Amino acid sequence: MLARLQQFLTLGVLATALVWTLVTWQLGNPGWAVVGALLLLGGYAGVLALEFVLLNLTHGNDPTARARPAQLLRAWWGEVLSAPVVFCWRQPFRSRHWPDHLPTDAAGRCGVLLVHGYFCNRGIWNPWLERLTAQGTPFVAVNLEPVFGGIDDTLPVLDAAMRRLEQATGRPPLVVAHSMGGLVLRRWLGKHGSLRRVQHVITLGTPHHGTWLARFATTNNSREMRQVSPWLAALAEGETTRGAADFSRFSCYYSHCDNIVFPPACATLPGANNQHLPAVAHVHMVERPEPWAELQRRLAN
């Protein structure tokens, strides 16, 4: 569903930009033709810039070092380059290019479960899926649905993927989760699983304690990511009640330049291996070598 929606949005913007350029050029306004096309195709960069302004203004007393202007600019540019690749190419048109890999010799090997975040699908992991396939590592990458439903509504998808990996390998998998995907995994562990069912969890920019930006949210799952939301309170209570609040098996990557999850410490957990990625924005975090290196280290153990 999300892939079709993003196909429609991508092609719609491209068609609008083309029509605008042709019409205004024919009317003798080449300047407006260029300006309009640039706004349509590159206007997202301005939205990203606003997010970076907001993350800087709301840093407050967060224990993470405040990002310097040069770091914010570097992170913004990285996100400007990453966002269209992910949202206009990989996810809408290439989300099924690398299928799940469960080879016949998977038994006894450690598998990897990859869980995407909000308004994303498995296509965001394509560089990871290509490398995992090349090295023969068993993996499953989910498409969480319903896209705009509650976080709890996606648990059956995660549960089915977890069972596929367990049946194929006979071992608890390594889980890598981006953004909201980390909350889906925590909810699953608290309600339907236990820490024994995962070898280790790597989260990238997950709003473990919500995010300031979600106060403007309108969909069910995004509202659940508001700071001090009832859903997050229920998550923490359930983890404590069921003994799933031990985060020593978590590695949490976060950044003072995360333009979606801020203040920065919202993406950390007590007792986890919290790793700061300086000058790295939210989507671009998936491209960084550090989380991939952590996964390889865990696979080698």
If you had to describe this structure to a student in words, what would you say it looks like?
With 301 residues, the chain is an alpha/beta fold. The protein folds into two domains: 2-93, no CATH class; 112-300, Rossmann fold (3-Layer(aba) Sandwich). The chain is 47% helix and 9% strand. It contains ten helices and six strands. The protein has helices at 2-26, 30-42, 44-57, 69-93, 126-134, 155-169, 180-191, 220-223, 230-241, 289-300, and strands spanning 112-115, 139-141, 174-178, 200-204, 250-254, 273-276. It has a six-stranded parallel β-sheet, with helices on both faces. Helix 1 runs antiparallel to helix 2 (30-42), helix 1 (2-26) crosses helix 4 and helix 3 (44-57) packs across helix 4. It is globular, with a radius of gyration of 20 Å. The two termini are 37 Å apart.
**Which consecutive residue ranges, at least 5 long each, have pLDDT under 50?**
none
In terms of quaternary structure, the protein is single chain
Report strand order across the widest sheet.
2-1-3-4-5-6
User: Structural class, please?
Assistant: alpha/beta
Helix content: 40-55%
Number of domains: 2
* Number of DSSP-assigned strands: 6
- What is the CATH architecture term of the largest domain? 3-Layer(aba) Sandwich
Keywords:
Rossmann fold; 2 domains; 10 helices; 9% strand; 6-stranded parallel β-sheet; alpha/beta; 301 residues
Structure, briefly:
This protein is of the alpha/beta class and 301 residues long. The chain has helices at residues 2-26, 30-42, 44-57, 69-93, 126-134, 155-169, 180-191, 220-223, 230-241, 289-300; strands spanning 112-115, 139-141, 174-178, 200-204, 250-254, 273-276.
